[in-house]
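re: ur msg from earlier - yeah i can do the adenosine monophosphate complex, just paste it... oh wait u already did. ok heres what im feeding in:
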Amino acid sequence: MKHSPNSPILLTSSLHVDEARKAISQLVNELIEESKAIGDLADIETVSLDQAINRILANDLLSPIDVPAADNSAMDGYAFDSTCLGVSDATVSLKIMGTAFAGKPYEGKINPGKCLKIMTGAVMPAGCDTVIPQEFTSTQTETQIEFPQNQLKPGENRRLRGEDLQEGKPAISAGRLLRPSDLGLAASLGISTLIVKRKLKVAILSSGDELRSLDQPLDAGSIYDSNRYSLTGLLNRLNLEIIDCGIVRDDPASLKKAFIDAATKADVLISSGGVSVGEADFTKQIMQELGDVGFWKIAMRPGRPMAFGILKPVAGKSPARKTLFFGLPGNPVAVMVTFYQFVRSALLQLNGANQTEPPITQAISEAAIRKKPGRTEFQRAILGRNADGRPSVRLTGSQGAGILRSMSEANCFVILAHDQGNIAAGDWVDVALFDGLL
Ligand code: AMP
Ligand code: MG
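and the outut:
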């Protein structure tokens, strides 16, 4: 079955979440392939470490050095030659020859029967291969330590040169969505800049006659546009370039103009609103002129209607490239759920990330949850611990698709799979944490 956005099968039946994800991934792949000829999507740039968070590493980062650069001590204790160790509890007595500090190595060699007081991170002196932690010695004076022969094994508490990273080997692989630990790792190698994929340009707009911007008064029947702000927050987590195209009225001419304008500037356009059954016909008509966009009914809750496809290269756009289009539902929670489920992975994939799926964990449901088989559900919940100390989740109040408060109070989604039925209290459920993602 070909999952082109307008495949009739996708229009007539409810689409499984996994099928929708597959179709999106395929189209993104096609876009990447097409853009290879143009080169633009593959562009790279050099950024300093403090700008690199959440960017995508363009090439493998090779370590210029061994880390650690020398064998060193993992503990505060005494370094010595392990030939004195054995299986009995006979006492070993070692004479203390001096002290090695981190950053201030001991120059001499330590012979058998002697030892060196050593601090964590200090270079192991010549002649030593093992460190006994201070607290494991039975007797300690200024000049002597004692401990039983079988107190530890040869090589213990020594970190080996190159144990962390070897010179010339990849320290971070191409395609990594750079996290704080990656920046620290690069710094530990003396690397101050990284080569990353260029920032994706993502346009966002809200459509609906009822929407008001925050500086406008609320007249009867109108509401503030919240989606652009939650979307901005979501996109900022991915450190990309956001092009805010504002609020667009529900009339074909304005919508068409706004879409063309966004397609001129952006790699991806994300709109919200205007794709539900009552309004889709109107948006569909414009999309037929501007691109190839499918109007999907996805078997999920919240977030059932969604439009997805491409906008054709607009006249004058250079390079002449298509724009990926997501028409998300208007409901504020549905926007965030569909972003999490479909848009985030697509943006990462388009930008060359090698890992696009957010991690899923499991927790015990504190209460029963009603669930009909035949659709994937995303319930807002708080992950914590139950009385036994095990991970547990409880739902946050009303789960309506428009109720942002349930989202704001939550720290995770409970994801109930397509075929899943009711959940009993005490059942394990899949959980996706917001932190770092949403
Ligand atoms: P629609 O998908 O356009 O039918 O919108 C579904 C619901 O979401 C309606 O109640 C809209 O008023 C609401 N909605 C649409 N867009 C936004 C927005 N940008 N901010 C807040 N609510 C919205
Ligand atoms: Mg609307």
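cool cool. The radius of gyration is 29 Å. ping me if u need the other ligands too
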